Amino acid sequence: MAMQSQIDSKRLHTERNKLGQFATPTRLATDILEYAKSLWPHNQKVRFLDPAIGTGSFYSALLRVFPATHIEEATGYEIDADYARTALKLPEGAPLTIRTVDFTSAMPPRSDKDKFNLIVCNPPYIRHHHLTHEEKERLQMLTEKTTGIRFSGLTGVYCHFLCLSHEWMAPEALAGWLIPSEFMSVNYGRELKKYLLDRVRLLRIHRFDPNNVQFEDALVSSAVVWFRNVKPPAEYSVEFTFGGTLSNPKVSGLLDTKVLRCIAKWTKFPFVNESTARRQVGLRLGDLFDIKRGIATGANNFFILSMGEAVSRKLPERFLKPVLPGPRDLDTDEIRSDPRGNPLVNRKLVLLACSLPAEAVAPEYPSLWEYLQEGVRKDVNNRYLCRHRSPWYSQENRPPAPFLCTYMGRHNTRRGKPFRFILNRSSATALNVYLMLYPKPWLADQLDASPKLLERVWEALNGIPTPTLVAEGRVYGGGLHKLEPKELAEVPADAVLAALPKPIDMWT
User: Fold this and answer.
1) Other CB atoms closer than 10 Å to residue 484's CB: what's the count?
2) 275 and 317, same structural domain?
3) Backbone phi, then psi, for 408, in 5-degree steps?
4) Is 197 in the same domain as 304?
5) 384 occurs within a structural domain
6) Shared domain check, 188 and 153
7) 125: closest CA among 219, 21, 13, 7?
8) Domain co-membership, 266 together with 408
9) Which secondary-structure segment (H or E) carries 344?
């Protein structure tokens, strides 16, 4: 670890981030190898492979956990020569071969006797946007050739590493992969889950508590995935654990693979047990509401103004829409309004939105034209979202919604929960830090007719248990939770249905 720190200190964090170089802490590496030993046949020699050995965290742990006489071979691949040289300086205890080439370009052994029976790896965490189009295509083709699975172009390199190792595994080999837990909840993770269910026997997934990040220099929520290279039975149970350590998790449970195939978000487990998962097939919030992200302006500093600034610049009122401040500046969860529909909040903000062409703005609204020219001088018109709009200063159509949900948050807030639902009685729209819930027409009619029902539905939304919301979203290192519109739409609607005065089929 001292040598690792010395190497890392000579490199920019952005460079290491781009290459996905995040070293495995010693204690975690030891915990992983100790768990591998608990599954290991007593009389079997170890043929060890680490496809991204780095400075040798797992190899070092291998030497601590397994007797040297039990280690027949140890091989590592490492593209970074500095890291490889550091691994070779580790105390001798077993034969170690390091190949300084990209594992994804290496040729796997041809015969089973030359393959490996223990693979443990913390693969490079390289996000897709750091890859060229050609590199994505190469990895996609290789993985498809190896496993029959074609990953999305949004897939991180770690998924390719895991699947490409398939041809390196001896029959019945054990594999433990320390990877980001995001694969359990994002769309591109479906293909990796398909591999884990169809090509190998998935044994266990341990997810670390996101509030307890495993890497000091990377805010990523981690998991360890264990499987054997055997043909899986048609149906069997998989162990899911959460929090604590591999040897002493806080929560654990067994899930049938039949259930896993039907559930998109594996981050629900082990908090949701098998019987609950089987029952979660009723109505969702998406059956009651159309859910959309708030407005993404592309340049909030330009398009969002205080009411005072808009007046001082003499911007025409017809092009100014009231907009809610962000959640941090919102000191209430019920937004009331003045007689004109403006929200009664401390920070009164407006959104500049004009769809008139430039030739119409210049002669008719000189003060607005002057402000737009100021935006051009600041290059606002060339920002990504702006240059894809016509005209560049127009905005998305997002009418005010009666219900809003915060888009992201943490448990350790004064409210003690990451998400909150807001009742919006004003004509203000919202920015993309909120999700906007528009009631379906049949529900909207009932809400218009009954102000008390509006409040009951709002209270029911806030009554949805936090674990239920969290289970449908995604979580990042440090405990930051996020919900996208499609994810919120998948939340069970039981609480809201209970607030309605009559069954849903009487309205629809």
Assistant:
1) 16
2) no
3) -150, 160
4) no
5) no
6) yes
7) 21
8) no
9) none
pLDDT digit string, tens, across residues 395-441: 999 999 999 999 998 876 666 789 999 999 999 999 999 999 999 99
Pull the structure tokens for residue 294. Answer: 């708030």
CA 271, CA 123: separation in Å to the nearest integer? 27
Statement to judge: residues 9 and 88 lie in one domain: yes
- Contact between 58 and 29 under an 8 Å Cβ cutoff? The reply is yes
Sign of the alpha-carbon dihedral angle for 124, 128, 130, 132 = positive
Pair (199, 294) in one structural domain: no
What distance in Å separates the CA atoms of residue 304 and residue 431, rounded to the nearest whole number? 10
Of 403, 444, 35, the C-alpha closest to 246 is 35
Structural domain ending residue among the three candidates 279, 307, 322: 279
Tokens 């390196």 sit at which residue? 168
- C-alpha to C-alpha distance for 173 and 96, rounded to whole angstroms: 19
CA distance 165 to 104: 9
The answer to whether position 87 is within a domain reads yes
User: 231 and 198 in contact (C-beta within 8 Å)?
Assistant: no
Alpha-carbon gap, residue 66 to 33, rounded angstroms: 8
265, 314: one domain: no
Residue 242: which domain range?
2-279
- Retrieve residue 48's tokens: 């060890």
CA–chain centroid gap for 203, Å, is 23
294 shares a domain with 266:
no
pTM of the model: 0.65
Among 323, 379, 380, smallest CA distance to 353 is for 323
| Domain C-terminal end among 218, 248, 279 | 279
- Across residues 305-315, what is the average pLDDT? 95
Token couple for 98 = 């390091």
Mind listing the pLDDT tens digit for each residue in 336-354? 999 999 999 999 999 999 9
Amino acid of residue 7: I
For residue 134 the two structure tokens come to: 């050609």
Residues 6+ apart with CB under 8 A from 42: none
CA-to-CA separations, 209 to 60, 219, 243, in angstroms, rounded: 25, 12, 5
369 within domain boundaries = no
**Quick count: other Cβ atoms within 10 Å of Cβ 165?**
23
